Amino acid sequence: MHLHKYEKIWLVFGIASLIVFLSVVGVSAFSHDHTPSGGMDTIDPEKVNETAPFDNPGVSQLDDDTYQVTIVAMAFGYNAPEMKVPAGKEIIFKVTSTDVVHSFTIDNTKVNMMVVPGQITTKSYTFEKPGKYLILCNEYCGTGHHMMSSEIEVY
Ligand code: CUA
Q: Does pLDDT of 51 surpass 90?
């Protein structure tokens, strides 16, 4: 096979740029000790229902200003009865999945978590305004993906 001189130059340039870019990303990630957003906690996805705090999903109050909401995501819904939390307090969401990758996304907020089986994803958020907020899954997770939604009430 014969390669034109310019083709060779661009091939070398392309491959060299790729190596440089990937090295920059890799070295900076390791040197800054990057972790996946949402934390590094793991869980056995087959034992979610027996593992605290997921054995008792829902809202719990940690102290005067902090609440925790524990949610189990599965095809095609979220298991967390009665999601009602106060405005102006720190809400810590802890989510995991029992099957495939989902998301836990609260409309009109900065809560947009990827929910991965085997991993516990954590996100802290403070609601400013009371109201009902739509919760959606935005990772395609199967035939019922479009029906996967819920609601959280902020009072
Ligand atoms: Cu769960 Cu899409």
A: no
**Which atom of ligand 1 lies at the shortest distance from residue 142's CA?**
2
From the CA of 54, how far away is ligand 1's center (Å)?
19
What span, in angstroms and rounded, lies between the C-alpha atoms of 100 and 133?
Answer: 24
Report DSSP state, residue 49: G
Mean pLDDT of 119-147: 94
Quick one: pLDDT at residue 29?
Answer: 86
Predicted confidence (pLDDT) per residue in 10-30, tens digit: 999 999 999 999 999 999 988
Superfamily of domain 38-154: Cupredoxins -  blue copper proteins (2.60.40.420)
Q: In what order do the strands lie in the sheet with 112-115?
A: 84-85, 149-154, 131-136, 102-106, 112-115
Distance CA 12, CA 17 (A): 8
Instruction: Compute the distance from residue 114 Cα to the ligand 1 centre, in Å.
Output: 10
Q: Whose CA is nearest to atom 1 of ligand 1?
A: 102
- The continuous run of DSSP H or E covering 5 comes out as helix 5-31
Please identify which residue in the block is written with the tokens 């997770």: 141
Is pLDDT of 2 > 90? no
